[in-house]
């Protein structure tokens, strides 16, 4: 049993802690193998690796890439790649592009329902100017009393059909899997239970992911119920995928699950880190 936590976010994307504070928190919580997986960004990787080393904490490089598949957003986690690979770095930069324009449009949508200057408000929470996300809008709307917590903001304002929602074209599944794989890493489908796919669409996601070279799926994540974990353990076996485990921790105030405080992977699955043993730093 390994307390691996291979999914979390820092101020380089939409988390509230620095890579250094996350490394310290992971170590304090008993994490034995850690990866920082900022959205569409590897700018925190050198800091995270150095901070992990200072804590004596084994580290895998990480990222979480936004992909558009069957008209929905899917997240693909990459682990154990070279963070300086030029195709990966360029692909992620392109994926980040358009976030500012999207944020302006989100702000326009919110203004129509009487919420003024949300763009400027959200910017106050942004740590990386290329990575303004819905999470930063959610923090602003909670802080200004429009909603009482971030899930209420998403429910009322930031999801499909709501005034602050703006559809966005992210990377293609094939691109994200290739960037990760060609940089020497392993691609993993993040929190599969969070997508609103029909059974046919979900089958297509897993089949195409495998066909493009994807190797793993998150079975234990902060956003799966125990029933969902059982269901995706079966899916991992069905598609011959290795399994990953990660809290998806964003913030001490907002995240339900802290770093390293998840159930262990079910014993019949192959952990992704077994195949990445030579990439652990
Ligand atoms: P974006 O990449 O800008 O579309 O923002 C996506 C981020 O919003 C995710 O990575 C989560 O951190 C956050 N998020 C999405 N849905 C919810 C929700 N229902 N409640 C809280 N946070 C959410
Ligand atoms: Mn996030
Ligand atoms: Mn995600
Ligand atoms: Mn995440």
Q: Would you give an account of this structure?
A:
This protein has 2 domains: 4-95 and 169-279, TIM Barrel (Alpha-Beta Barrel); 99-158, DNA polymerase, domain 1, CATH 1.10.150. It is 40% helix and 12% strand. It has 11 helices and 7 strands. Helix 1 packs parallel to helix 2 and helix 6 (134-143) packs across helix 7. The model has no long low-confidence stretch (mean pLDDT 98). Bound molecules: adenosine monophosphate and manganese (II) ion (MN) (3 copies). Residues 9, 14, 39, 135, 250 line the site of one manganese (II) ion (MN).
Outline the secondary-structure elements:
Blueprint: E1 4-5, H1 19-28, E2 33-34, H2 45-55, E3 62-69, E4 72-79, H3 86-96, H4 99-112, H5 118-123, H6 134-143, H7 150-158, H8 173-182, E5 186-189, H9 199-211, E6 216-221, H10 226-238, E7 242-246, H11 272-275
Parallel strand pairs: 1-2, 5-6, 6-7
Antiparallel strand pairs: 3-4, 4-5
Helix pairs in contact: 1-2, 6-7
The structure holds adenosine monophosphate and manganese (II) ion (MN) (3 copies).
Which architecture of the largest domain would the CATH scheme give at its second level? Alpha-Beta Barrel
How do the strands line up in the largest sheet? 3-4-5-6-7
Low-confidence stretches: none
Radius of gyration: 18 Å
User: In CATH's first tier, which class of the largest domain applies?
Assistant: Alpha Beta
Number of helices: 11
Strand content: 5-15%
Distance between the termini: 19 Å
Structural class: alpha/beta
Average pLDDT for all residues: 98
Count of structural domains: 2
Q: Give me the CATH superfamily of the largest domain.
A: Metal-dependent hydrolases
**Quaternary structure type:** single chain
The distinct bound ligands, ions and cofactors come out as: adenosine monophosphate, manganese (II) ion
Order of helices and strands: EHEHEEHHHHHHEHEHEH
Biggest sheet overview: 5 strands, mixed
Helix content: 25-40%
């Amino acid at each position: 049993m390994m307390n691996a936590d291979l999914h979390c976010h820092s101020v380089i994307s939409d988390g509230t802690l620095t890579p250094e504070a996350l490394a310290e928190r992971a170590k304090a919580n008993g994490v034995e193998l850690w990866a920082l997986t900022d959205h569409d960004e590897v700018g925190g990787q050198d800091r995270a690796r150095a901070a992990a080393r200072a804590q004596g904490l084994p580290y895998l490089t990480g990222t979480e890439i936004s992909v558009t598949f069957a008209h929905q957003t899917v997240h693909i986690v990459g682990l154990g790649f070279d963070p300086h690979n030029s195709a990966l770095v360029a692909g992620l930069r392109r994926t980040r592009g358009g976030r500012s324009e999207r944020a302006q449009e989100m702000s326009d949508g919110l203004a129509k329902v009487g919420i003024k200057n949300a763009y400027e408000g959200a910017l106050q929470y942004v740590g990386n100017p290329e990575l303004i996300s819905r999470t930063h809008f959610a923090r602003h709307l909670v802080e200004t009393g429009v909603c009482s917590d971030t899930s209420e903001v998403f429910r009322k304002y930031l999801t499909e059909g709501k005034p602050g929602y703006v559809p966005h074209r992210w990377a293609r599944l094939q691109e994200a899997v290739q960037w990760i794989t060609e940089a020497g890493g392993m691609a993993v489908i993040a929190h599969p239970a969070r997508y609103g796919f029909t059974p046919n669409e979900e089958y297509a996601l897993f089949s195409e992911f495998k066909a493009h070279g994807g190797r793993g799926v998150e079975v234990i994540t902060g956003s799966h119920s125990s029933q969902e974990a059982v269901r995706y353990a079966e899916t991992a076996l069905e598609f011959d995928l290795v399994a990953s485990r990660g809290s998806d921790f964003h913030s001490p105030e907002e995240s339900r699950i802290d770093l390293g405080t998840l159930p262990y992977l079910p014993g019949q699955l192959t952990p992704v880190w077994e195949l990445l043993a030579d990439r652990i730093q």
